[in-house]
Design brief:
By secondary structure, the protein is α/β, with parallel strands linked by helices. Helix content is about 40%, strand content about 5%. The chain has a 4-stranded parallel sheet, sandwiched between helices. The longest helix has 18 residues. It starts with 8 loop residues before the first strand and ends in a 30-residue tail after the last helix.
């Protein structure tokens, strides 16, 4: 049995692909036997065939939010972290989808959410604190009384720097001595991912021996809906900025919220939430929110 306490620590927050990165390192180094990462799972949590670990991948909320039964091996002996997966504000659109849909394997696709019913069921699950970061339960309780408008507002706040993931990250960076940073965005471009895997392997004393592109391809294929959705909203923002017509009548609430977030970031102030969302980018005329109305997370 592997003594994980002696392995270099890969520290990551919920949904930031730490399990996937750990598996890729083991396989590409030649130390681990190749296996199917996704057998019977939405996320890369399948351990069947995962016989050799070369890093100790530690979930941050195991360290700071308590351990689940059987997770006693995850405790850190000191503050030295070999690698931390770093998240930027621009990553949150994809990350939040991944936390609720793939990482937690709850199957809650934010692109399909039209009300709070599914989220309320999720936050009442006793396991939720082990997966979802940023106080989702508190956010649901704050915004649920405003139905669709509240859901759009809650999502919009999830994309901002007030997101709990980013504030927790500041604490992590201050609390630990971290030797390597692996950027969340590197997971989504093969050239970056391959290069950085090689860098990490060298730092561990290994070389890149086994091709893992098939694992990476399956990884990004499973996330095409959210990747394309983000690109679509960013295109809509460009059209809004240039006063160019683009039909956005099919935008789901999550996409509407992200477009509002991008507009607020561009304008530099909070805007009023639409009751009936505009159907075209040329119909978007944001009104600055009244100073007396603010949601506090």
């Amino acid at each position: 049995m592997i003594d994980l306490s002696v392995l270099p620590v890969l520290l990551f927050q919920g949904g930031t692909h730490g399990n996937f990165l750990s598996r890729c390192l083991s396989i590409s180094s030649g130390e681990g036997t190749d296996f199917s990462f996704y057998a019977n799972k939405n996320g890369a949590h399948n351990n069947t065939g995962y016989d050799t670990k070369i890093v100790n991948h530690v979930h941050d909320n195991h360290v700071h939010g308590g351990m689940r039964p059987g997770d006693h091996w995850l405790g850190l002996q000191n503050n030295d972290i070999w690698t931390y997966i770093n998240v930027d504000t621009d990553d949150l659109y994809v990350l939040y989808w991944h936390i609720l849909f793939a990482a937690g394997e709850f199957g809650v696709n934010v692109l399909e959410l039209k009300n709070f019913n599914m989220l309320e069921q999720l936050v009442n699950d006793k396991k939720i604190h082990l997966v979802v970061q940023g106080g989702l339960k508190d956010q649901v309780n704050i915004f649920k009384d405003n139905s669709t408008i509240g859901l759009r507002e809650m999502f919009k706040r999830s994309f901002s720097e007030k997101n709990g993931i980013l504030s927790r990250q500041i604490d992590i960076l201050n609390e630990h001595k971290i030797s390597n940073i692996f950027k969340f965005s590197w997971f989504y471009k093969w050239e970056d991912f391959e290069k950085q895997i090689e860098v990490l392997l060298v730092s561990l004393g290994y070389s890149f021996k086994v091709d893992i592109k098939h694992h990476w391809q399956e990884f990004v294929d499973r996330k095409q809906n959210i990747i394309c959705s983000k690109q679509l909203v960013e295109q809509a923002f460009k059209c809004y900025s240039n006063r160019v017509s683009m039909d956005i009548s099919s935008f789901c609430i999550y996409e509407q919220a992200y477009l509002d977030y991008l507009i607020e970031k561009h304008l530099g102030y909070e805007i009023e939430n639409y009751i009936d969302y505009p159907r075209n980018t040329q119909d978007i005329y944001p009104i600055k929110a009244w100073e007396g109305i603010r949601y506090e997370l």
